[in-house]
Amino acid sequence: MSFHNLGLSKPLLDALAAKNYAQATPIQSQAIPTVLTGRDLLGIAQTGTGKTAAFMLPSLDRLAANRNIPKPGQIRMLVLAPTRELASQIADSAQTYGRFMRLSVGVIFGGVPNSKSVRTVARGLDVLVATPGRLLDLIDQRALSLRELEILVLDEADQMLDLGFIHALKRIVSLVPAKRQTLFFSATMPKAIKELADRYLTNPAEVAVTPVAKTADRVQQKVVLVNQAEKTALLTMFLRSEQTERTLVFSRTKHGADKIVRLLEAAGNASNAIHGNKSQAQRERALAQFRSGEVSVLIATDIAARGIDIPGVSHVINYDLPEVPEQYVHRIGRTARAGAEGKAIAFCSPDERGLLRDIERLTRQKVDVAPLPEDFLQQADALKRLKPAPKAEQPRRAPSRGFKAGRRADGQRRENRNDRSGQRQEHRSERPAGQRSEHRNERSNQDRSGQPRSGQQRTDRPQQRHPHRGEGHPAHRPEGGRPKPFGGRGRRRPSGAHRAQG
Predict the structure, then answer these.
(1) Alpha-carbon distance 472 to 263, whole Å?
(2) Which residue segment(s) compose the domain that 106 sits in?
(3) Are 266 and 283 in contact (CB under 8 A)?
(4) Region Disordered: start and end of each range (predicted)?
(5) What is the DSSP track for 273-313?
(6) Is it the case that residue 143 has pLDDT exceeding 60?
(7) Would you say 155 and 51 are in contact if contact means Cβ atoms under 8 Å apart?
(8) 84-97 vs 280-292: helix axis angle to the nearest 10?
(9) What is the per-residue pLDDT across 336-389, written as a single tens digit (0 to 9) for each?
(10) 439, CA 20 to 30 Å: which among 119, 306, 429, 463?
(11) Are residues 198 and 243 in the same domain?
(12) Does residue 195 belong to any structural domain of this protein?
């Protein structure tokens, strides 16, 4: 169906024409007219089918029609996304679609200085895309309020629950007005999402354009049975023999992703890794190099399995099979996008056979088994002897001015003081016992400036009379007079005793 038949305004149609978007996808053609009416929506659609445009286009149209200038620290539309990359991508799409509308768009997520996020929301925004953690941080700092929110969108709702955002979502929903439009979009619909939708959606329209957990039709799937220790050799041989444009490799763990990068570098294959332990700058640089083709291999955890739209991914390799079978559908959905074709290859070790059966049971299709390459064992033995590249040292980040960063800096200073104190104690303990006692005696006979104390001065040089004191002054008596109490000042006598002596 053409976008011209969906009731969108002319500025949006002009923006779509500038991007050469003419025909709407099934999820877009069903969702856009419903959202334009202001009704709540629960959308189920396979990843890569255009869910972002399905909720962003009609929402921008409604915001532009009801032109309310947002107040400082207020927002009109909030889109929640589970990852930084997806949030950034949604914000880019909003700016692209609203280029001919006078609407402000901002994005906030962790990994950037808190002061930058505060500046983003300070003047107020029409559209804010955010991850739940950073959003709650700004609300707690009273830099952001949701009192005037008109539209709430939750994208990739099932992944939100997988990442443990359920408590954050409940708190966010409790802070928004009861009178609002709420849109839920997800690739799958587990029971927990259904319960959450029933709680926060009011008489929603349901749109489901593809069966749940159905893999993309244009993806050619294969599985190779291989031992876990030989997977890196198989990946290296595959990259050497296949004609690939961009290859996305999925690892189960962050440590495993970094190890794959080092092993590929030892074999002469350049690659980058992206996962939760990488800084935001490192993640953005890795994605930019992958998009541009400068580095054609990207090793990722499931952080890149959802919503990351990278054109030209010809191959997806499941180096490790996912423990959650739905993740397999999202992983291979990174290829064969926008009508293109792609290939998905899974490396299955003997202890992953159960995971493979779960995937086939979920997708209701048998994955074809591909044989190992010829003379695989000989080449694998040669590749195993390659030493992985050493770990790159992470650059030390400059401390920010945020509250948490200040606490970390204070803790670091305390650790440095403790280290120096321990070094002094260790230095003292290395001295012999006799030398330590001599050192203490020598220091006790000196004041802070290193000069002998007053008692030693009286024994070394003759006493001098004070010009205004007579011979009878206690300081010049042979016995030295009555000693003063400790502290340098005598005790105050009771007032009655003083009068009696007077």
Answers:
(1) 93
(2) 3-208
(3) no
(4) 385-502
(5) EE-TTS-HHHHHHHHHHHHHTSS-EEEE-GGGSSS---TT-
(6) yes
(7) yes
(8) 60
(9) 766 678 899 999 999 999 999 999 998 888 999 999 988 888 888 887 777 666
(10) 463
(11) no
(12) yes
Same domain? 201 vs 248: no
Residue with tokens 């901002």: 106
**CATH number, domain with residue 36:** 3.40.50.300
Specify whether 195 is located in the same domain as 243. no
Could you report the per-residue pLDDT of 47-56, keeping only the tens digit for each? 667 889 999 9
d(CA 294, CA 290): 6
Same domain, 269 and 204: no
What the block records as the tokens of 359 is 């995937």
One domain, residues 348 and 255: yes
- Tell me: the pLDDT tens digits for 109-122? 988 899 999 999 99
Q: Flag whether 471 is in a domain.
A: no
* Position 57 pLDDT exceeds 90: yes
At which of 183, 208, 233 does a domain end?
208
Number of domains making up the chain: 2
Q: Are 46 and 24 in contact (CB under 8 A)?
A: no
DSSP lists the bridge partners of residue 315 as 247, 343
Amino acid, single-letter form, for residue 117: S
pLDDT of 12 strictly over 50: yes
Residue 40 domain-assigned (yes or no): yes
- Mean pLDDT within 236-243: 89
Measured CA to CA, the distance from residue 11 to residue 191 in angstroms comes to 39
Contacts of 41 (CB under 8 A, 6+ apart): 31, 34, 35, 55, 183, 184, 204, 205, 206, 207
Indicate whether 433 belongs to any domain: no
Tracing tokens 């029971």 back to the chain, one arrives at 191
Helix, strand and coil in the chain, % to nearest 5: 45, 15, 40
**Is the whole model's pTM more than 0.85, yes or no?**
no
Q: What mean pLDDT value characterizes the chain? A: 80
Q: Please, which residues bridge with residue 222 across strands?
A: 345, 368
Which of 108, 305, 91 is closest to 188 using CA atoms?
A: 305
- State the amino acid at position 389 in one-letter form: A
